[in-house]
TrEMBL record:
<dbReference type="GO" id="GO:0005737">
    <property type="term" value="C:cytoplasm"/>
</dbReference>
<keyword id="KW-0570">Pentose shunt</keyword>
<dbReference type="InterPro" id="IPR004730">
    <property type="entry name" value="Transaldolase_1"/>
</dbReference>
<dbReference type="InterPro" id="IPR013785">
    <property type="entry name" value="Aldolase_TIM"/>
</dbReference>
<comment type="function">
    <text>Catalyzes the rate-limiting step of the non-oxidative phase in the pentose phosphate pathway. Catalyzes the reversible conversion of sedheptulose-7-phosphate and D-glyceraldehyde 3-phosphate into erythrose-4-phosphate and beta-D-fructose 6-phosphate.</text>
</comment>
<dbReference type="InterPro" id="IPR018225">
    <property type="entry name" value="Transaldolase_AS"/>
</dbReference>
<dbReference type="Pfam" id="PF00923">
    <property type="entry name" value="TAL_FSA"/>
</dbReference>
<keyword id="KW-0704">Schiff base</keyword>
<protein>
    <recommendedName>
        <fullName>Transaldolase</fullName>
        <ecNumber>2.2.1.2</ecNumber>
    </recommendedName>
</protein>
<comment type="pathway">
    <text>Carbohydrate degradation; pentose phosphate pathway; D-glyceraldehyde 3-phosphate and beta-D-fructose 6-phosphate from D-ribose 5-phosphate and D-xylulose 5-phosphate (non-oxidative stage): step 2/3.</text>
</comment>
<dbReference type="GO" id="GO:0005975">
    <property type="term" value="P:carbohydrate metabolic process"/>
</dbReference>
<dbReference type="GO" id="GO:0006098">
    <property type="term" value="P:pentose-phosphate shunt"/>
</dbReference>
<dbReference type="GO" id="GO:0004801">
    <property type="term" value="F:transaldolase activity"/>
</dbReference>
<comment type="similarity">
    <text>Belongs to the transaldolase family. Type 1 subfamily.</text>
</comment>
<keyword id="KW-0808">Transferase</keyword>
<dbReference type="InterPro" id="IPR001585">
    <property type="entry name" value="TAL/FSA"/>
</dbReference>
Length: 347
């Protein structure tokens, strides 16, 4: 009932049992990069006890699916009751119930892990900075009411211009840590670093998908993979100019991409690809290294203020196309609204 993801962490020393069993990894590799787990979960499951994950993230599409399952109706009913107690219009009750539901799922997962959980701000707010800030602060307040410190929460925001500015305000003014998603370009990564956000999640596989769909070239060697090259450039740039934002490569299509980014701060690896890696006994050595960052030949870049900065972020093909794909997440939010609305009207 859950998806377990592996994190390849360049600065951690914690190892999970599954990774210790991987005989193909060199001792030198472990000195540079250690494995620990990130859980992408519908809700707490036996997999948490099995893999002992460190950190976790909730996903709107998975929560939407879980909200329709009998096993999680108790959480849905608690969220609905909360929305009703706050009152207001039907729309306001649904919005408050959704926030509560996301926090309930996150709180359940936090009972099982020592690290942090990421909770996403509604993607429908991706182009409204003030609304994202308000929603993020509301989520943190709900966690506080549940006895959970904001230090255990990462707020997930879309890497639009407005989202990045929201992340900057949340980090600087409110001490709220942010995980910037839907990141497809170097310009977005630079803007996130300048904003001082905690973590970015560049989408390796989706960058590859765009190039395959929009160019004549349909296959790439791992080190020439456009997504790999993008994350490598971002990682080296961050280390060169001593940005503290964590780079967490995500959305992989094959193990070649993963191996080509070994040594990155974090990598999230799907169960399928993790299984393939655990069966692969070839030697694996780090490709990326923070020590090499200062020697990379590049110039520091500054993102122009609004509105030119928006053009910087959206002017690259993959980024422009994929940022528009935020609209893909709108039906998820609408679907959640519909489910909770039906319960409100029937009870």
């Amino acid at each position: 009932m859950c998806e377990v993801w592996l994190l390849l962490a360049g600065k951690r020393t914690w190892l999970c049992r599954a990774c210790r069993a991987h005989r193909g990894l060199s001792k030198d590799f472990w000195a540079e990069a250690a494995f620990h787990l990130l859980l992408l979960s519908k809700i707490v499951s036996p997999a948490i006890d099995e893999y002992k994950p460190q950190d976790a993230t909730t996903n709107p599409s998975l929560i939407l699916a879980a909200a329709q399952m009998p096993a999680y109706q108790e959480l849905v009913e608690e969220a609905i009751a909360y929305g009703r107690r706050l009152g207001g219009s039907q729309e306001e009750q649904i919005k408050n119930a959704i926030d509560k539901l996301f926090v309930l799922f996150g709180a359940e997962i936090l009972k099982k892990i020592p690290g942090r959980v990421s909770t996403e701000v509604d993607a429908r707010l991706s182009f409204d900075k003030d609304a994202m800030v308000a929603r993020a602060r509301r989520l943190i307040e709900l966690y506080k009411e549940a006895g959970i410190s904001k230090d255990r929460i990462l707020i997930k925001l879309s890497s639009t211009w407005e989202g990045i500015q929201a992340g900057k305000e949340l980090e600087e003014r409110h001490g709220i840590h942010c995980n910037m998603t839907l990141l497809f370009s170097f310009a977005q990564a630079v803007a996130c670093a300048e904003a001082g956000v905690t973590l970015i999640s560049p989408f390796v596989g989706r960058i590859l998908d765009w190039h395959v769909a929009n160019t004549d070239k349909k296959s790439y060697e791992p080190l020439e993979d456009p997504g790999v090259k993008s994350v490598t450039k971002i990682y080296n740039y961050y280390k060169k100019f001593d940005y503290k934002t964590i780079v967490m490569g995500a959305s992989f299509r094959n193990t070649g991409e993963i191996k080509a980014l070994a040594g990155c701060d974090f990598l999230t690896i799907s169960p399928k690809l993790l299984g393939e890696l655990l069966k692969d006994h070839s030697q694996l050595t780090p490709v990326l290294s923070a020590k090499a960052g200062p020697h990379v030949q590049c110039r520091e870049r500054k993102i122009a203020p609004w509105p030119s900065g928006t053009a910087d972020l959206c002017g690259i093909g993959a980024a422009r196309t994929r940022l528009v794909r935020i609209l893909h997440f709108l039906p998820i939010g609408a679907g959640m609204d519909q489910i909770l609305c039906e319960i409100l009207l029937t009870d």
